[in-house]
Write a structure and sequence with these properties.
Layout: H1 13-28, H2 33-39, E1 44-53, E2 59-70, E3 76-82, H3 88-105, E4 110-116, H4 125-139, E5 148-152, H5 158-172, H6 196-211, E6 220-224, H7 228-239, E7 243-249, E8 252-255, H8 262-272, E9 282-284, H9 286-290, E10 296-299, E11 318-320, H10 329-337, E12 341-343, H11 345-348, H12 351-365, H13 371-394, H14 402-421
Parallel strand pairs: 3-4, 3-5, 6-7, 6-10, 10-11, 11-12
Antiparallel strand pairs: 1-2, 2-4, 7-8, 8-9
Length: 432
């Protein structure tokens, strides 16, 4: 690069790691310093107050965030999470990942992300609806079907999106359901959206296994997370003939080296809310689960699960990141040294935004695809993206890891768009 890029001083580990990877990728690609300048900070970050009258009559003013990272490829796109620990830096980092995800899988969106600092688990349905509508009223001027399109995330779902779409429609005075994706089917949702992240994750897991000549039939799979992503992924991998030997939720996991009856396990989780109490299996901790001897490990729960402390214990041949940021940079390095094939989050869990794009297209044009069409197009997108990133990874000029390859491939496409749109006055490549 034409100048020395200084890392931005941030306290949040996720944001710091993301900026480091972006900086490293820009340097490896020998791109202009201006590319990093555009990508190191959101183009807009909005913080709002969301006042809500609670069921007991008191007023609680929640804080809402929306990070609009980069729109060189199209409207901002990204989920809204409700979580008591959400921070501005976390939301900024997640919006950067969305820019890279959209570029990676070739959908015409930029990156966005939102959050409300609250705990929806302690709210009534009415209070949750008021938060959702209040967020849209506060953020409405920076959202829109051609501007910024939110979606579900942690502790938000199709019902939340329906409330938001309704509130925005009332504000605009005309139906505008395309303002959000991940909606229920009757109000413009897309078939297959609920399990899209899991399906995309499974498609790239299959491609990764193929590259290492690991037959799926009988392959031993471990999944951390039994929620929407992990639970669906477990069922789908079992359908492929895999043997699910371990799965966990936030309280712990279950293990059976002969293979779990995964349908019964997921049914138990849905009916009781926990994996505890399942008979004829071994109860294990999440740390024990990550260390199980297996072919494919899918961390599909929370961030920072594979770290410097436990990465050396990972025995999987392939790690497919169903969650956002489950591996720390230190954990990454250890997995690389141990020759574990890592399929990074910005590739592995991009199925959700891909099908969100399909939903947005259908909303804009007023028609609906059937499940077979949605699934086929998702599969094509995921396989193409995996093979493109794997090609970068295998190239002698890279010689790094799949995460770096994914960042480089994605940032190259973003930089090219900047060049064509005239954002880079000094050219695409650095002046060495």
């Amino acid at each position: 690069m034409s100048k020395n890029v200084e890392e931005v001083e941030v306290k949040d580990d996720t944001l710091r790691a993301t900026l480091k990877l972006i900086k490293q990728s820009v340097e490896l690609l020998e791109l202009s310093y201006d590319v990093y300048e555009y990508l190191r900070t959101p183009m807009r970050f909005v913080e709002v107050a969301v006042p809500v009258e609670m069921d007991d009559g008191s007023i609680n003013v929640f804080t809402g965030y929306r990070s609009q990272h980069n729109n060189v490829l199209g409207p901002y796109k990204g989920g809204i999470r409700y979580h008591p620990d959400s921070t501005p830096d976390e939301v900024k980092a997640l919006s950067m990942w969305m820019t890279l995800k959209c570029s990676l899988v070739g959908v015409p969106f930029g990156g966005g992300k939102g959050a409300v600092v609250c705990d929806p688990r302690e709210m009534s349905l009415r209070e949750k609806e008021k938060v959702s509508r209040g967020y849209i009223r506060a953020m409405g001027s920076v959202l829109g079907p051609e501007t910024d399109i939110p979606a579900p995330d942690v502790y938000t779902d199709g019902q939340v999106m329906a409330w938001m779409a309704d509130e925005y429609t009332m504000m605009m005075g005309t139906p505008a359901f395309g303002v959000v994706t991940g909606k229920p089917i009757p109000v413009g949702g897309c078939v297959g959206r609920e399990e899209a992240t899991s399906r995309g994750c499974v498609y790239v897991a299959k491609e990764a296994a193929r590259t290492l000549d690991i037959p799926l039939k009988g392959a031993r799979v471990v999944i951390q997370g039994a929620g929407n992503v992990g639970g669906f992924a477990a069922l789908l991998m079992a359908e492929e003939g895999c043997k699910i030997i371990g799965i966990s939720d936030s309280k712990g996991g279950v293990y059976d080296p002969a293979g779990l009856d995964i349908e019964s396990v997921i049914d138990h989780k849905k009916s009781t809310g926990s994996l505890a109490g399942i008979s004829d299996v071994q109860q294990i901790t999440n740390q024990e689960l990550l260390a199980l001897d297996c072919d494919i490990l899918i961390p599909a729960a929370m961030e920072n699960q594979i770290t410097a402390k436990n990465a050396a214990d990972v025995k999987a041949k392939i790690v497919v990141e169903g969650a956002n940021g489950p591996t720390t940079p230190e954990g990454d390095q250890i997995l690389k040294e141990n020759e574990v094939l890592m399929v990074p989050d910005i590739l592995a869990n991009s199925g959700g935004v891909t099908v969100s794009y399909f939903e947005w297209v259908q909303n804009n044009y007023g028609f609906r695809w059937d499940f077979a069409t949605v699934d086929q197009r998702l599969q094509e997108k995921m396989i193409e993206a995996f093979n493109q990133v794997y090609g970068f990874y295998c190239a002698e000029c890279i010689g790094s890891d799949m995460r770096t390859a994914a960042y480089m491939f994605s940032i190259q496409k973003v930089a090219e768009a900047m060049q064509y749109r005239g954002w880079l006055r000094n050219g695409l490549k650095s002046k060495q």
